Structures are given as structure tokens and as C-alpha cells.
Amino acid sequence: MVQSSFSTMEADVGNSEKEKNEHSETALGRRKKWNHRRNLIAFWFLGLCNNFAYVVMLSAAHDILKEEENTSGTNETSNATTVSPTFTTSANEDEFLTCNTIGTGAILLADILPTLIIKLTAPFYIQRLPYWFKTLLVVVFAIGSFVTVGLAHQVWLSILGVVFASCSAGLGEVTFLSLSTFYDRNVVSTWSSGTGGAGVGGALAYAGLTSAGLSARNTVFVLISVPILMSISYFIILTKPENQLHQLNNFCSTSSLVPKDDGVPLLSESESKSTQLSLAEKLRLLPPLLKYMIPLTVVYFAEYFINQGLHELLYFNSIFLSKAEQYRWYQVDYQVGVFISRSSVNIIQIKHLWILPILQLVNMALLLSQVFYRFIPNVWVIFAIVLWEGLLGGGAYVNTFYKMSKEVPAQHREFSLGAATLGDSVGIALAGAAAIPSHDHICTLRIKM
Fold it and tell me: Does this model's pTM top 0.85?
């Protein structure tokens, strides 16, 4: 009888322990799922906030300069949603192509050169800085861009604000794509979706606030809330998983890893080498990255040649949209395409990246031919092509980095993703160098409409 009682008690204790373990495992599973969702959300907002100032600053800088020039008695046309050229009128504008030289060369250089310099150099030193410090730098540069442009009363201050926005976007892209290697690879998808959303959201937010009656300056100050949201996303929403990189607060230290509070190493010994690569090792890693970077560079070259050099010239006379309105809606149409494709990698994955530059070059050739020969019958066909252009550009970006997150060895992934961001910036810089003189030359020709 006593033995039976002991057996029953042992069974009850065993069942109790089993129930506790099952409950603990269920709670742990729910916590992991919740943390995973938090990380996806955090990276989406990091992508959105990272590119937001980059999108808004060009418009704001020009609008504020317009206010100053109007005050001093000059009058200059500006676009509220993007850096758009002014459109002249003439007696024969319905017979021949008319356009103005793009007067934004300095702004375009201020927009891309700082990003290019950061991406070119950062992978070789930036891993020595802790992520919290790099995030603060991104936030400070973004806030600095809004404040500087909001207070600008001179051209050089306005351009300086654009430089700050460019530094913020370039440093942020290198930082957060490198950071993504310590999380589930799906955060690359949500990051890319967020950066695509910045194009649409930035243009709509700026245009909406100014259309509601706020001045350009006040709108810029309101949008300081965006980099503040970035800091919330990183420091509050984003979790700190066991294999995330935590670097020493004293970033001058030779060690770039610290153990968790419980003493468990954050990375395995082989993975930790990713933060201790020598300069020679980093240089040896660059040639294998060219298969990812070259297609991205070509896609962005063709894409920005279209955007900077051809969009203004693709207008139609005597339709429901003016020339300036057609230009603005081309930009919105393009940003919608980018947003859709940057959000699509979990649905459609493109394994052969070389297909995308070929298709984008076809777009460039098609639209360049349209400028000279005017064979496309109506504006809706152009809208379809521009949407397709955005889809290809966004698709090249997200598929490149998603593919790298799967194919690059774990110990090299942090450096490699940061270095590969150079691809799109080189493409944009080359496109700017080619598009501005090409556009100017086309404007000197008498092209029959």
C-alpha cells in the first residue's frame, strides 16, 4: 500500500515536471515568435527612416531656396515632391522638343558623393565601431540635415543639409545591412521594403504637409520626428539575440566582441573572425563580391540615367497633365514600383541577377529612342515602362542582398554585405556623370515632336 502511494506520488511529480517543461517550451516558443516579429518590424522602420531624409532633402532644399529668392525679388519654379527641372514655353513648343538644362548639378553631387565616399571606405574601418554608436551617428546626421535645411538662408547651407542627409543614408545602409547578418535573413526583406516605402512615403509626406499649408521650413522641422523614430526602432523595438554582435563601449579596444551577461559567447569562434579581418583579408574578399555588385551597378546606372536624364523629355503635349505634372507623376510611379519590388523577395526570388541589368538597359534604350523618334503613342505606355523600371531597380537591390545573406559564408557576411552597398552608389554616380551632359546635349537639338 505504501509502495503504491510512493509510485503515485512519483507519477504525479513526473507529470508535474513534464507539464512545467511543456509550459516553459510553449512560453519560449511564443517569446521567440514575438521577438522575430519585433525584429522584422524594427528593420522595416530602420529602412524607412534611413532613406527618408535622403528622399525629402532635395525637395526641401530647393523649396526653401525658392522662398529666399522670392523674398529677394527673384522667381524660380520648383517641384514640391522631387528635384524637378523648370519647363519653358515658346511659340513652337508643340512642334519641337523643349526643355531646360537641369540646374541641380551641385545638389546632385552633394546627394551622392558623400554616400559614395562612405560606402567606399566604411567596410575597412566601420566594424571597429559599436552598432549603438553608428546608429547614433546616423540619427544625428539625419537630424542635422533637417535642421540645417530648415534654417538655411544661403545656398551653401542648403547644400550642406543635403550632404548630411547623404552621409546619414550611406552610413545607415552600411550599418544596418551589416547588422542584419546577426538576425534571421528575412530582416533583409523588411529592411528593403522599408527603404522602398521611404520613396513613396517621403514624397507623399512632404507634398501632403506643404499642400496642407505648412511652409517648407515648418514641414522640415515636423519631419525631425522621423530620425527620432529610427532611434526608437533600434534601441527599443529591436531585440538583442544571442548571436547579435555587441561591441565594447570603448570602441578603441582591440576586441570587438563582448560576452553576454550570462557568459555565453555571442558568436562561435569561426564566426567571430568576421570582425577581426585584416586589411589584406578584406581586399581578398572583394573580387568574389563583384558577381553581386556589377549587376547592381549596371541596373542603377540605367535606372538613374532614365530618372535624371530622360524623365523630363518624355512629355506629351495637349493631354490632361502639364509637362511638370507628367514629370512629378513619373517620379511617383517609379517609387511605387521600387516599393513593390523591394517588398517582394519572400514571394518572388530572382536567382540569376544578370537578367535584371539587361532588362534595365533595354528600358534605357527604349526611352532614349522615344525622346528622338516619339513612336510611343500615349503617356500611359510611358507610365507602364517607368513602373517596370522601378520594379527592376527595387528587385535588383533586395535580391542581391538576400542572395548574399544565403551564399556568403557566415564569417565573411558582415563585411561583405556592407561592402556590396557600394554597387548601387557607383551606378548612381556614373549615371549622374553621364545623364547631366547627355540631357544638356539633347536640349540643344531641335527634335521634332
Answer: no
